[in-house]
Amino acid sequence: MIVEDNPDIRDLIGFILTEDAYQLKMCPTAISFQDEIAKKLPDVIVMDIMLPDGDGTDLCRVVKNNPATQHIPVLLMSAHKSELKTETGANSFIPKPFNIIDFKQIVESYL
Amino acid sequence: MLSDEKQALLAAIVDSSDDAIISKTLDGIITSWNPAAARILGYKEEEALGRHISIIIPAERLHEEDFIINEITNGRRIQHFETVRQTKYQQQLPLLLSISPVRNADGVVIGASTIGRDICAQKEAAEKQGILAAIVKSSDDAIVSKTLKGIITSWNGGAERLFGYTESEAIGQHISLIIPPDRMDEETYIINQIVSGQSVSHFETLRVTKTGQEIPISLTISPVLDGKGKIIGASKIARDISERLRIQREKELLYNEVKLLSKKKDDFIAMTTHELKTPMTSLMGFLQVLQMRVSSEDPNGGFIRRCIKQVDKLSMLINDLLEFSKDQDGKLQIRPAPFDIVSLIAELIEPYKEDRLNKIEFSAADSLMVNADRLRIGQVIINLLSNAVKYSPNGGRIKIKAGAEDGNIFVSVKDEGIGIDQNCLQNLFDQFYRAVKPGYNIPGLGMGLYISRQIVELHGGEINVASEMGKGSTFKFMLPGLPQQ
Fold first, then answer.
1. In angstroms, what separates the C-alpha of A15 from chain B's closest C-alpha?
2. Do A100 and B289 touch (CB under 8 A)?
3. DSSP letter (8 states) at residue B302
4. B172 forms bridges with which residues in the sheet?
5. Is the peptide bond prior to B480 cis by the omega test (within 30 degrees of 0)?
6. Which residues of A touch B333 (CB under 8 A)?
7. Which segment of B91-95, B129-133, B139-143, B398-402 scores lowest on mean pLDDT?
8. Long-range CB contacts for residues A90-95, cutoff 8 Å, separation at least 24
9. What gap in Å lies between CA B186 and CA B204, rounded to an integer?
């Protein structure tokens, strides 16, 4: 599951990962993420921190505090590492801009 | 008998007097010379007797003698005549003279007796007092004295200017004249200090002028002692500090303004760099996708590689900008932990080994432990390495050394590049400073070495540089070492 508000970056991640035939669920907002995760649990979550309607670090904490979802790996993405102010329980951090090969390796290491 | 006793008594008085007592004839021949005269004027009694009085009169004052003899001959006394006489050793002495006629049994004036008092000390004291008075008078500070009851006894020009009252208006008045009503108890405190013999220094308070205006002043108050050491009053020096306070307030205002502006600037940089990174992420990503999709024979592959290289550079510049604002914000923090700096360097030089233009040589001990922030120190090393490459456009060897020295761990990076002008060296670690001459087209913000120095200094270390134009530069930084295993 990819949570990213920028359509180009969503497309880019789509390109990187669909070539290997992963099933992707794209969420452009915090609300759509909450809707989707209620329907079906993903294998891994890649999430941007600055979202138009919420903060990725808060969403991450919700996922990690919920017994039903806490096993799902969460990878937080941001341009500024400083946005990772507090302990979020995230499994990894991906700084932007990223190298697509590195990106793929990190995501796959959690699958 | 009685007359004999009386004469002996008089002789004893003359002998023991502190004043010089001399008698002479009307012709000026010395007929008596007491021990004080010998002490003050240097001639012994036997040297003086029978000589003319002019031996103790300076040449330019010889005319005084005519006047004196004239007065004496006419039976008149001369009192408190301040003049100068000279000693056997030609030293001039200020003396206060009293001269009286000496008469014989028939009442005829036959000579003169002179009593001379040495007024050297008095003269000096008066001179000193004159100097002190002049200082007080000309001082810009208000200088006021008062009795222990608070009655003003002196008031200088500075006090007139500062408080607006003239000397004649102020003297005799109570000091409460210039104390604001709500500060009257300060006077009690000050007087208590003074009575117990203590002075009060730099007491900052308010006083009120003749026109009712309150002014901030700094007071220094000391006890005034009489000749016997008894406290009889207080002297106070008041300095107008309104200007100083105004400057201080202005400084505070300016400081806050600068701080606010700096914060705004940092927020702006943080926001801008974040915004810039979003399009950079997709630009970089899609370029890499494109790169993977062109075959290795496709000549367009070269163009894509160049694009990626430039986007990398852009990305580095943006990071420099952000680093800079973080640092200004006081956010540059280090998290020290023990690690081996040799393995860190080995890791960091790996990508540079592919560089065909520059040959990297690394020499160090097997392991050197430091207690530092591994990421930040890595940043410093990368900065020095990339500078070495950047400023060696024609290639050359880049020698990296790490070792222990006086309990410190050092890392040095030596290149054979273009070198740095001696005049530029001292500014090299300044923010935004770039030593590059216009002829060389080498990009950069002038942030790298600035940040490197901040990081090294935050670790309690130091960084320096030695360079020669055309021969290359050596950068070296030191960190406090850990006890090595």
1. 8
2. yes
3. H
4. none
5. no
6. none
7. B129-133
8. A90/A57, A90/A60, A90/A64, A94/A46
9. 11
Contacts of A18 in chain B (CB under 8 A): none
| Residues on chain B bordering chain A, Cβ-to-Cβ distance under 8 angstroms | 270, 273-274, 277-286, 288-289, 311, 315, 322, 326, 331
Neighbouring C-beta atoms of residue B102, cutoff 10 Å: 16
- Condensed to tens digits (0 to 9), the pLDDT of residues B403-421 reads 988 888 999 999 998 888 8
What are the chain A neighbours of B288 within 8 Å (beta carbons)? 99-101
**Cα–chain center distance at B479:** 34
The reply to whether residue B311 touches residue A98, judged by beta carbons under 8 angstroms, is no
The whole-angstrom separation of Cα A66 and Cα B71 is: 125
Nearest of B126, B102, B120, B127 to residue B39 by alpha carbon: B120
Assigned token pair, B463:
């960084």
Q: Which pTM does this prediction carry?
A: 0.47
Structure tokens at A67: 């017994």
Query: In whole angstroms, what separates CA B164 from the centre of its chain?
Result: 33
- Backbone φ and ψ for B120, nearest 5 degrees, come out as -55, -55
pLDDT in tens, B252-299: 899 888 888 888 888 888 888 888 888 999 999 999 989 888 888 888
Q: How far, in Å, CA of B353 to CA of B363, rounded?
A: 14
- Shortest CA distance to B458 belongs to which of B375, B335, B320? B335
Are A97 and B280 inside 8 Å of each other by CB?
Answer: yes
CB contact under 8 A, A50 and B274: yes
- A·B CB contacts under 8 A: 58
Nearest CA distance, B435 vs chain A (angstrom): 30
Q: Which residues of B touch A80 (CB under 8 A)?
A: 270, 273-274, 277, 322
Enter the ipTM.
Answer: 0.83
Residue B8 has φ and ψ, to the nearest 5°, of: -65, -40
> Closest-CA residue in chain A for B332?
A82
